[in-house]
Amino acid sequence: MAAKIEVTDLTREPQVARATSPAAARCDLSDVSADRAPATLACPSCGDENPVQAVFCANPACHKALGEFRYVREELLEQTRWHETLAERATSFIGKPHFVVAHVLLFAAWVGVNTGLVALVRAFDVYPFGLLGILLAVEAIFITGFLLISQNRQNVHADKRAELDYEVNVRTYREIHEIKAMLQATLNGRN
Ligand SMILES: [Zn+2]
Question: Which of 32, 40, 65, 181 is deepest in the core (most CB within 10 A)?
């Protein structure tokens, strides 16, 4: 009995193969491209026309991903408050070698003046340089604050990006399910 079913299934296969012959497939594809696919892709941000296969906008000033995505960076820039901008600028300076060089020069000048090695100015903070210690402690507090603000902002940025990735994944998942259902319906119709 089981063997019989297999035989009938096998006899069906060539019919399916004939129905999806390359000629038929080509015909379907040309219909789709003529009806639905646009010749160019308009950038949702700057409005420039791009080739259909393009992923990013060809306009160098824009260079956004082409599609119905939210622009996370722009969204965050709009929400940025003054202290966040200040923290970003401060941390970007702290992360440069200039910051270290400036401190080395400051320490050298401070020690030079207050130990009498450089006699341009009268010593104002003799050894063990208590004033320098206080100033550095205050600076450390500000740097910590700036770094934490900047880190919070980066976390928000990462969260938004993850959210966007998730959104794209869900959309892709749904599209694939739709395509699968359509394919199944087509196969059922032909059987
Ligand atoms: Zn653009």
Answer: 65
Shared domain for 41 and 89, answered yes or no, is no
Q: How far is the CA of 71 from the centre of ligand 1 (A)?
A: 12
Statement to judge: residues 64 and 86 lie in one domain: no
Cα 63 to averaged position of ligand 1 atoms, centre (Å): 6
Cα 38 to middle of ligand 1, angstroms: 17
Residue 75 CA to ligand 1 center (angstroms) comes to 16
Centre of ligand 1 from the C-alpha of residue 56, in Å: 8
| Whether 99 contacts 146, CB under 8 Å | no
Residue 9: exposed, middle, or buried by beta-carbon count in 10 A (0-12, 13-18, 19+)? exposed
| Cα 42 to ligand 1 centre (Å) | 8
What is the pLDDT at residue 73? Answer: 78
| Residue 49, domain extent | 37-69
